[in-house]
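We keep the chain:
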Amino acid sequence: MAIRERLIEYRDGSTLLEGFLCHDDSRPGPLPALLIAHDWSGRGEFVERKARRLAWHGFAAFALDMFGKGKRGATTAECSALITPFVEDRALLARRITAALAAVRGLPEVDARRIAALGFCFGGMCVLDLARSGADVRGVVSVHGLLKPTGLPSQGKVRAKVLMLHGYDDSMGPPEDVLAIAKEFSAAGADWQLHAYGNTRHAFTNPHANDPALGLMYDEAADRRAWHSLLQFLDEVLR
C-alpha cells in the first residue's frame, strides 16, 4: 500500500480554491472518488484525517475547499463570518461545491462514473445541497449536517442516494428539521435514509468537540456507529 497525498488548485470563477487529494497508489485505477466537505472552520486536519482513513479503504478522497485557498476560521466569530455568505446564498453554495465536483471528475486517478460526497456540519449542508441540485453523483452522506431547506426553486428529482447520520439532540438540526427534510427528499423521489443517534449532540464525530454551551459534544459510540454506516453505504453506492 502506497498512500499518496497532494494539494490541487482549482477555481470557482475568480476564486482560487485548494483541495487535498489522498489515494492508495498501489491499487489499480481509476478509483471511486469521495468529495469531503469541511465544517465551518475550513479545510483542515479534521477532514484531511478522514481523507487519509478513507484512502486506506480504496477511495480517492478529496477534501474540498469552500472558502478559498488558505482561508480558515480560528474563532466562533471568524467561522461564522466564513459560512454566512453561503448560508444566505444557497445558489452560491451549490455552485462552489459543484466546482469541486468538476475538478475531481477531471483527475486521472478518478473513475468519473463513481463519485460520492461526504460532509460534516456545514459540509453536511453542502453535500445535501449538491444532491438537491440534481448532481450526477452516486450518493451523499451528511454527518451532523445542517438540514435547513435551500429556499430555492425545486430542482426536481434527486439522483443521488442520501444518507444522513444525525444526533437526535442536535440543537442545530432539531427534530422538526429532521421531519421536514424527510418530507422534502421523499417528495423529490430520493432513495434516502436517516440514522438518528439518541442522546447525541452536534459534532459527535469530532474528538475535539467539547462545548456544551454551543451544543457541541463528541460521542465515541455514535462516532463508531456512524463510521460503520458510512462504509456500508459507500460500498453500496461506489463498488
Notes: The domain at 3-238 is CATH 3.40.50.1820 (Rossmann fold).
